[in-house]
Amino acid sequence: VLDSQYGMYVWPCAVVLAQYLWAHRRSLPGKRVLEIGAGVSLPGVVAARCGAQVILSDSEELPRCLQSCRSSCLMNCLPHVPVIGLTWGRVSPELLSLAPIDIILGSDVFFDPRDFEDILTTIYFLLEKNPHAQFWTTYQVRSADWSIEALLYKWKLKSTHVPLNSFGADKEHLASSSLPGRHTIEMMIISLAQSDGT
């Protein structure tokens, strides 16, 4: 059921990112994973079920989304997975006290261009603190005018496109779900750019 708070719904991008995690499940045990904008937390739950040490987060201003994260954990027998409030673009005690992480997950966080810089500011902060980490993100192509390319350059980040067919997600139906449907979904991995400017 669609809700006025975006995080109360499983979006097509979440299914695609969950498929990527499933395709890479053998590399997940022991990895430290943070999902941002988690909402119903499908990717984070899959990562946790595959053996990753997961922290789920959503905006501290959206208590219903944080409760949705907790409910997803309980429904999937993951009561130990921490849920924290992290608001994009805001330096908070929760952000500052995060333990080291290997992978940041974000499905369909790039849906409102007004949030793009706040998201990338937070990602940059996390990657600076964890230089080996990567941000695995899926997004739905909604407008050819929306781009994060200039912001990636500004924040000294680089992106690598991940073809959906490389992990079996180039289909209309995944994992017995009607999602992603006919939506145009893309995936990329964002990391710190090298010091030589690449």
From TrEMBL:
A GO cellular-component term linked to this record: cytoplasm
UniProt protein name: Histone-arginine methyltransferase METTL23
Family designation: Belongs to the methyltransferase superfamily. METTL23 family.
Gene: Mettl23
Subcellular localization(s) per the UniProt record: Cytoplasm; Nucleus
Function: Histone methyltransferase that dimethylates histone H3 at 'Arg-17', forming asymmetric dimethylarginine (H3R17me2a), leading to activate transcription via chromatin remodeling. Maternal factor involved in epigenetic chromatin reprogramming of the paternal genome in the zygote: mediates H3R17me2a, promoting histone H3.3 incorporation in the male pronucleus, leading to TET3 recruitment and subsequent DNA demethylation.
Record-linked InterPro entries: Methyltransf_16 (IPR019410), SAM-dependent_MTases_sf (IPR029063)
Domain of life: Eukaryota
Source organism phylogeny: Eukaryota, Metazoa, Chordata, Craniata, Vertebrata
Pfam families for this protein: Methyltransf_16 (PF10294)
Recorded GO MF terms: protein-arginine omega-N asymmetric methyltransferase activity
Major localization class: cytoplasm
Catalytic activity field: L-arginyl-[protein] + 2 S-adenosyl-L-methionine = N(omega),N(omega)-dimethyl-L-arginyl-[protein] + 2 S-adenosyl-L-homocysteine + 2 H(+)
GO biological process: chromatin organization; methylation; regulation of gene expression
Keyword terms of this UniProt record: Chromatin regulator, Cytoplasm, Developmental protein, Methyltransferase, Nucleus, S-adenosyl-L-methionine, Transferase
Quaternary organization: Interacts with HSPA5, HSP90B1, TUBULIN, UGGT1 and UGGT2. Interacts with TET3. Interacts with STPG4.
Provenance organism: Machaerirhynchus nigripectus
